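> @MW can you paste both from yesterday?
MW: sure, first one:
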Amino acid sequence: MFGIKPIFWVLINSAVAFVYLFIISKLLGKKQIAQLEFIDYTVGISLGSIAAEMATNTETPFYFFLIAMTIFFVFAFLVAVVGRKNTFFKRVLKGKPATLIYDGKINYKELKKNNIDVNDLLSMLREKGYFDIADVAYAVFEPSGELSVLPVGAQKPLVMEDLDGSKIEKAEMSNILIADGDISYSGLKDAGKDETWLKNRLGIKSKQDLDEIILAVYDDKTDELSVYKKNEV
């Protein structure tokens, strides 16, 4: 190409791709990684792939890649502009928040719709500092992939005047006995219980009864067994 050695074309194309990506990033605006929505992530991956191909492909004219990146930029920009003016259009392209826990109950339909199982939900809650699902009143899965959590009233942030001299109990994790219809035998062992006790306590008589339970959590301090079933919300 123009009598220039391939190695030099790689250097030139890499520099041009870097500068062009920098310009596009500036035009699209700043966003934290956690704030990226699905379409933003897809556009970013596509632009990166095109830029990488441009840097190493010495056969195809470099402006072909610039045209492709420009097309992706224009579409991403249009989606952002139209999305600000049209809520319906934004929801179609970027998705909408999904309430995974509503009024203390797990919304099984929303879990399935978003391809999330109960273990994923528990993991996201732990990342937010909630190790007991009973402490959560509402949990909303945002289009960015983040989980927003509203705790129950008793779990609001504590200040010193709230203590009133009362003794703070040592924090302990509850035992998960059932998750997504499967019995957790390690959880039963930690709780000092067995499968027979669990089935009798919950009135489980068949595999179908077990499959209806999304989550069962046991608190050995209070001997309470919190059960979350499908289609409760």
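MW: second:
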Amino acid sequence: MIRQPSRYCTVELQAAPARIGQVRRIVSAQLRHWHLDALVDPAALGVTELLANVHRHARPSKYCTVELCALLDQLTVSVHDEDPRLPRLRAADDWETCGRGLALIAALSESWGVRPESTGKAVWFTLPALTATPGGVPAVHTHWDPPPLEDVRTAAVGATGAPPP
């Protein structure tokens, strides 16, 4: 199957705390514009973590680019910066106040990774996006969404023959 980007957005910024909040709001607004409302919270959280890493660790510059690419079945969020050093996932001790950002990215995303680039690196993650419903109408589903209440009741009735108490 050929997967062409159906929607694409980039934001360039200096990863300063005030700008990180602005980009979080831009990402949220863009996803709502694309009718990907269910992805707003995980995407905004993930981009905030990646931009915080740029702010804290990137050298020589805090300049970076955030890219959103929505395909038919997934959203890819990537942050490109000019620092060639690649981050790595590590286990933070209980007493540590930082060091959990990539673990959070791994937990909230379908997949994630780091790739070197000629001008630095990109850190990216994907979230599941559109799937088809039985009526053929696109719907947004995420692996962290609970099943709708109607499905739970139907499953309970079908399994026991009686409605749940």
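> thanks! Strands lie at 7-14, 63-70, 74-81, 111-117, 120-128, 130-132, 138-140.
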